Amino acid sequence: MVTEDIYQLHNTSAVMRSCEVFGIQDMHVVEESLGMNLDREIAIGAQKWVDIQRHDTVSKCVEQLRSKGYQIIATTPHDDAQSLEDFDVSKKTALFFGREADGASDEVMQCADGYLKIPMFGFTESLNVSVSAAIILQNIVSRMRNENVNWELNKEECVELEFKWAKKTIKRVDEIIARFQEQKNL
Fold first, then answer.
1. Closest Cα partner for 4 from 77, 100, 114?
2. Domains of the chain with bracketed CATH
3. Which pLDDT band, with edges at 50, 70 and 90, does 12 fall under?
4. Amino acid 78: pLDDT
């Protein structure tokens, strides 16, 4: 999940909340023009569980994701985009969501490996970015589970993530760890 220069901070927070709800661990935020803050009332704690990776340019974000084997898919309501129900969920994918009024930047559109749209039947051309993200995530995650796509973390990754989450929820965790290590060294 990648958001690009989202203007309304509640939209980024809502996208992050959807990531957490649907089990997406990593969210990338491109802050080329705008800074990124979270609306904690909208995120409702999701910031504890989702790893946010910040990028100051689209090119750095795309380069990092491609180096990890991701295909770059720009979301857009335009006709040349593939419909959500036809999207191949078996490929490792980074979904790019652009700014509210403008959509994905020209740079994202030019470097994208493909384009994805939500089928719409009314007269309105697009949905709010956080609504679009939630619809796409729900569809893709459900299909991945139904089609037996290997999406789960391995046991070692699960333990590492659970430890990281535990550290975020325990008060004064650094003091507890230091005390444990002291006692261990006695």
1. 100
2. 2-151 (3.40.1280.10), 153-186 (no CATH)
3. confident
4. 83
